[in-house]
From TrEMBL:
Protein source organism: Streptomyces murinus
Pfam families tied to this protein: EAL, GGDEF, PAS_4
Protein name: Diguanylate cyclase (GGDEF)-like protein/PAS domain S-box-containing protein
InterPro entries (alphabetical): Biofilm_reg_signaling (IPR052155), EAL_dom (IPR001633), EAL_sf (IPR035919), GGDEF_dom (IPR000160), Nucleotide_cyclase (IPR029787), PAC (IPR001610), PAS (IPR000014), PAS-assoc_C (IPR000700)
Domain EAL positions: 450-512
Length: 512
């Protein structure tokens, strides 16, 4: 049965067409574009399923990225074009009526996993190619004289035609020969390499073991090594590579040359950095998001050794009213302005501001004196909200409720700290808002107990834990009993008999 016009299958094919048009020009394939589009269709269908799946499947998304490598989409532009296409059109054509924010977050995570799967598959393929080249080079040394010419011809074909950079140097580091791919990577000419030595290419980001491994190899103590290394180009840019260096021995087994194989990973590294930024920063405000904030908070709490922290949890009062009356676009502009003001409040070393979502923000300060600095930070935040924010010619007065938590690192988890701050913030909101409150362990415990009673009410009803007690109504004039008042009681498994004052105000249908 054919899919209805403009149905899910039709939208999926539109996405596939857009994807193939972007990817086909940079793909090494003998397929026609229509055949190539047919090859991409199941991958697009898998992405559509993963976008709308109940739970996120990173392995399946990585498999899509790996499938692109199997389809010979290995040009440096291929992954970037794919991710741009997925970012722009996956939610549009395959998201349906689902929550857009959740779909875009899922799309971002899919892109990150696809890039990881693509990079892993491309690296496996490159390492296999590097191993084949190294083996060809080693075999070229040991062939008999009668086959020397043919062997050298084969090696020359591999040397000149390889997509990766290849260089040969002697044991003193003098560069003897490089292929065209390596020259293109570095932006050099054969003439500019004359007189250069391997040791000239040190870089500040070299791993500590880089030159130790090099020394071991030229001494003959190591046959090869593999690592990630950066090189400075003549134009001032940095070239990042996956570098494999192998030792070539003569017929008697004595070290003679070193063979370097380089894969250019600069674009992939920049892409990973971009994906990392998008995964850890709020798209609207540019502030760190919940993920990055939790990473930072967990690191601070794990530091110990006299370290202290202070946390301010801010929730805007009445923000829903602004969204409902002026629209979400105005609400977004207000959030951006609030974010800018908050960021200007936390500029000292050890301070950061993040957006947790919606109209909730957090500010973190660290150091030995946070009992003082967190109060100062909270005061700056509240003062920053005093000045009205102008949106579409209207001056909007912004109020906020602030919960403050301060203490030594190492005593609580990040989730416990944030829960305490959240409870404290709602205590400030319950007291009228536009104020700050300091965390109180006893108040936290009461709030947690109230929450536990609230969530346990439906189960208690099912278990029949409620019963009725009758209280007589006595006439004060003559002492006669005029009636009885029926009062509900809850026989709680842990807290014993609870009166209605303990749970009726907490029931989900009864406002606080």
């Amino acid at each position: 049965m054919n899919a209805e016009p403009d149905g899910p299958e039709d939208r999926l094919r539109r996405l596939t067409t857009i994807w193939s048009r972007a990817l086909y020009p940079v793909t090494s394939t003998s397929l026609t574009r229509a055949e190539f589009e047919g090859q991409l269709l199941p991958l697009a269908r898998r992405l559509s399923e993963l976008l709308r799946a109940r739970s996120f499947d990173a392995d399946a998304a990585k498999a899509v990225g790996a499938a692109l490598v199997e389809a010979h989409c290995t040009d440096p532009e291929a992954l970037a074009r794919t991710l741009d296409c997925v970012d722009a059109y996956l939610v549009l054509y395959c998201g349906g009526d689902g929550p857009q924010d959740e779909l875009r977050m899922r799309s971002s995570r899919l892109q990150h996993a696809m890039a990881a799967g693509y990079a892993h598959a491309l690296r496996r393929r490159t390492l296999a190619e590097q191993e084949a080249i190294a083996q060809a080079a080693l075999r070229a040394q040991g062939v008999v004289a009668q086959a020397l010419h043919a062997s050298e011809a084969r090696f020359r074909a591999v040397f000149e035609g390889a997509a990766i950079g290849i260089g040969i140097a002697d044991l003193d580091g003098h560069i003897l020969q490089v292929n065209e791919a390596l020259l293109r990577m570095f932006g050099l000419t054969q003439q500019s390499l004359r007189g250069r030595r391997v040791q000239d290419w040190t870089h500040p980001d070299d791993a500590p073991q880089t030159w130790r491994l090099y020394d071991e190899l030229v001494r003959g103590d190591r046959e090869h090594y593999h690592l990630e290394k950066a090189f400075n180009r003549p134009d001032g840019t940095v070239l990042w590579t996956n570098l494999t260096v192998s030792l070539l021995r003569d017929a008697d087994g004595r070290p003679q040359y070193q063979l370097a194989l380089m894969e250019d990973t600069t674009e992939r590294r920049l892409l990973n950095l971009r994906l990392r930024y998008e995964a850890t920063h709020d798209a609207l405000t540019g502030l760190p998001n919940r993920t990055l904030f939790f990473e930072r908070l967990e690191k601070v709490l794990a530091s110990g050794d006299g370290q202290r922290f202070g946390l301010c949890y801010l929730d805007l009062d009445g923000f829903k009213t602004i969204n409902d009356s002026l629209g979400h676009a105005a609400g977004d502009r207000l959030l951006v302005e609030v974010a800018d003001r908050l960021q200007s409040c936390a500029t000292a070393p050890g301070e950061m501001v993040a957006r947790l979502g919606g109209d909730e923000f957090v500010a973190l300060t660290t150091g030995p004196g946070t009992d003082r600095t967190v109060d100062e930070l909270a005061e700056r935040i509240m003062n920053a909200l005093v000045t009205p924010i102008s949106i579409d010619g209207r001056d909007l007065l912004v109020r906020g409720s602030l919960g403050i938590v301060e203490g030594p690192a190492g005593e609580r988890t990040a989730a416990e700290v944030l829960r305490s701050a959240d409870i404290t913030m709602y205590r400030a909101k319950s007291a009228g808002g536009n104020r700050s409150e300091l965390a109180d362990p006893e108040a936290d415990a009461r709030a947690i107990t109230r929450h536990g009673l609230t969530t346990a009410l439906p189960t208690a009803l099912e278990r029949g834990e409620f019963f009725i007690e009758y209280q007589p109504l006595v006439h004060l004039g003559d002492g006669s009993v005029r009636g009885a008042e029926a009062l509900v009681r809850w026989l709680h498994p842990q807290h014993g008999v609870l009166g209605p004052d303990r749970f009726i105000p907490r029931s989900p249908s009864t406002p606080d």
